[in-house]
Amino acid sequence: MKKKIVIILSIIIVLAIGFFYIFVNNVFVENVFLDADELKKPDFLNDKKAVIYFSSPDYENIDGMGASYAVFVDKNGQATGVRMNGLDNGMMAKDGHRVFLEEEDKVRIIGDHYKEFRFPDEEAQSFGELSGYLKKDNMFFSIYNTGQGKSEDEYYSDVRYGNEKGFHTVGTIPHFIVTSGQIDDHIYIITDNDKNEEDGRKVELREVHINKKGVKVKLITNLKFKDNPSPITIQADEKYVYVIMNLQKDDHNGKTLVIRINKKTHHQDRFTLAKYKGMADVNYIRPLDIKKSTHMLGDELYYVNMLGDVYTFNTKTEKSKKKLSLQGYQSGDRAAFHGKYYYVYKYNEKTHKYSINQYDLKTGELVKQQEIKGMKKIFSMNFFGKSIFSNDFMILD
């Protein structure tokens, strides 16, 4: 008799949990998550100021319960989210009135003509590397840190490519990518050389060409260093490619370097962009957002570190300097350059509030601080208790 009661109670509890889950999904979630009909509206992006990409880490997505969120923030600071299948380090891209979103097994293009494309299970991805838009071909792309091949010497970074007419996995880059960057229609990557020497480091600068027929990877040059710096990100202009690197000699001394490579001759020059002395400063040698740490504005390459210090390298005079410090700067979670402004998405642990801070790169002034409303509700819908981290941040207007 007792066994029957236990079974009946167990069934009731399971049904109650299931009912609660369905009820929450269909009632409460409506207020914080966007449905397909809303995303398909041609004017959906008209009042949107920014979008932030969140995801659970790849090791928590193995059970198929991981999640990614694209949180759109309108001009009044109100946040609404799009729930997606988990893709660690997922990235976004934009072109005019279009936003490209990726997830584990699907991509979406939101704008005047909404489209989404699903991929077969064997083409699902777990870790993003770089997303962008190629204006010349009117195509979006994504590069993924797909994983090791059958042997220890094989590594694959798959590529998706397309637009509203179709999206496909078009090929793979047979290298592990240390860092990457897109400048206009050019995609650059830094790959590790397997034959690193004990007294230094050797990496390779490559250019990636993507089209409907596949992926081509061209070696530009080898970069060899005795002091073992770490590549951060890549910038470029018409004549040069700039690889920004961090070098930490010890706990008290560090540098941020600019390695300039001539596109035609491949000649390399090395410049010191910033110096750090003392443990307090060296701890902040890394930028807030690696992929968004540099920006070309006129003849100057801008770099912002985690302390809010702005350094510039003048590409004409070859001079580096600390230009200014951002006023009232507080380190955040993600950053984005947009024209002459630097934006920081931040969660304040003391006030438990989310905000977007806008700084003027010319003066360092905090131009605007906008509170984001609705973030707590979005994160409260994380039913499976997964860790959620911000991966990308993009200004739309």
Write a compact overview of the structure shown.
The chain has 397 residues and is mainly beta. It is built from 4 helices and 29 strands.
Descriptive key words:
single chain, 397 residues, mainly beta, 52% strand
Largest sheet descriptor: 5 strands, antiparallel
Estimate the strand proportion: over 45%
* DSSP strand count: 29
Mean pLDDT level? 88
Rounded to an integer, what's the Rg over CA atoms?
23 Å
- Tally the helices: what do you get? 4
Give the overall silhouette: globular
Uncertain regions: pLDDT < 50 for 5+ in a row?
A: 19-30
How far apart the termini lie comes to: 67 Å
Helix coverage percent of residues? under 10%
The secondary structure category is mainly beta
Protein name: Lactonase, 7-bladed beta-propeller
Organism: Marininema halotolerans
Keywords: Membrane, Transmembrane, Transmembrane helix
